Amino acid sequence: MNRRSKSCFSRSLAKRGGAVLLGGALLLGQSGCGSQRTTDVRIGVALYQQNDTFISTVVENLELQARAWEEETSRKLTLNITDGGNSQSTQNDQVDRFLDRDYDAICVNIVDRTAAAVLIDKAEAANVPIIFFNRQPVQEDLDRWEGAYYVGARAEQSGEIQGQIVADAWKADPAAVDRNGDGVLQYVMLEGEPGHQDTLLRTEYSVNTLTETVPAEKLASDTANWDRTQASARMTEWIKRYGEEIEVVFANNDDMALGAIDACRAAGMTELPFIVGVDATPPALEAIEAGTLKGTVLNDAEGMAEAMFALIRALAAGEDPAQSVELEEGHYIWMPYRRVTAETIASE
Q1: Distance CA 5, CA 145 (A)
Q2: pTM surpassing 0.85?
Q3: Tens of each residue's pLDDT in the chain, 348 residues
Q4: Are 259 and 230 in contact (CB under 8 A)?
């Protein structure tokens, strides 16, 4: 963080009468930061949609971080978690309320990644750090202010891992995946939210990685908006049209992969296609152990929550965040993805 950034946060903390250290101890009476803080610590968490399984897992880990902080400091930390209901205007109003009520920091799982500039400008005006997570704003918006950050994973990496899981299964036993024996893998693609960077990159890189070594043919693709029910409906249509021609199902997240499994079961299929997802949610891990989901990619919900708290801790202390977290380009904390299959689960 540059000198201007440090002074910005020093002024912010002084204005509110103290500083908050999350995940460790409360910083009180810092030099130049004003008088000791007597009010509870308040963190606003604005979600794009709370019924998303992965996002709910992140929230659970944030709550665990908050409770651990309370035990260590004997202070009250309030996480005000709001559900945007997939409406950017609703989420804007929620962030406005956090700022109006002088919250210490705001974490935003943004509805529309192209709408971050408005929120960043408001946070800058209030001198409140804003941390976006899991849904990445465009870089130009993050560059507007040094107090705006992003915590998440590189979407292209998850696609690469998905494609590699399928390619490795082909190499190990082609007949187990290529059920019709034509030397080509026929696949369908369940896509997330249209225009979302995770949708675009996971879709592109999963197929590109597979086709580097394995002949493949797309039968169908459609959006299911990260949703299990929508994915089940799409998969049901494809089963009626293609039946057992479907050899592989790529799903941009686990909820949609589970929806594909639901559809296959409802259709009475005795042998399911090779289905892969992303996120490694608890229901997905259960499906891997059951053998219905062949692979997923760990999107580290626990690590994401820890990184957000570590970032706020460094900012509150007036420190250079790059000294406490792996901060790239002044704004980004990148979480690594990891391959998850029945074999990796068994080895842990």
Answers
A1: 9
A2: no
A3: 333 343 343 333 333 333 333 333 333 223 233 334 445 788 999 999 988 999 999 999 999 988 988 888 788 889 999 999 999 999 999 999 999 999 989 999 999 999 999 999 999 999 999 999 999 999 999 999 999 999 999 999 999 999 999 999 999 999 999 999 999 999 999 999 998 889 999 999 999 999 999 999 999 999 999 999 999 999 999 999 999 999 999 999 999 999 999 999 999 999 999 999 999 999 999 999 999 999 999 999 999 999 998 887 777 667 788 888 889 999 999 999 999 999 998 765
A4: yes
Inter-residue contact 23 to 68 (CB < 8 Å): yes
Ordered domains of the chain (ranges, CATH): 3-153+300-335 (3.40.50.2300), 156-298 (3.40.50.2300)
How far apart (Å, rounded) are the C-alpha atoms in residues 84 and 261? 28
Q: How far apart are CA 186 and CA 170, in angstroms?
A: 12
